[in-house]
Amino acid sequence: MQNLEKKVKTLPLDLHREVEDYIDFLIKKRAKRPKKHFSLTWKGALRDEKDPISSVDLQHKALNWWQK
């Protein structure tokens, strides 16, 4: 850690702020973000369909849409 401090001290003063900004960026980047939960607002949306469709069928259709 002392080696890092020595290196920073050798920098011109205007670069000290840039080093501090970069350190803040690294800390933020490594910080654990809270896990987001799925909203599942779509749950049951196909309940009233005439022809029931399975989740596997939906996966195949989605794959075909993405490939187009």
What does this structure look like?
The chain is mainly alpha-helical and 68 residues long. The protein has a domain of 31 residues. It contains three helices and no strands. The longest helix is centred in the first third of the chain and has 18 residues. It is rod-shaped and about 75 Å long. 0% of the residues are buried. The mean pLDDT is 87.
Percent in strands = under 5%
Over all CA atoms, what is the radius of gyration? 26 Å
Please describe the biggest sheet, giving its number of strands, its sense, and whether it closes into a barrel: none
Question: Count the helices. How many?
Answer: 3
Coarse structural class: mainly alpha
Shape: rod-shaped
The total strand number stands at 0
Mean pLDDT: 87
Distance between the termini: 54 Å
**Sequence of secondary-structure elements:** HHH
Low-confidence stretches: none
Helical residues, percent:
55-70%
Brief characterization of the structure:
The protein is mostly helical.
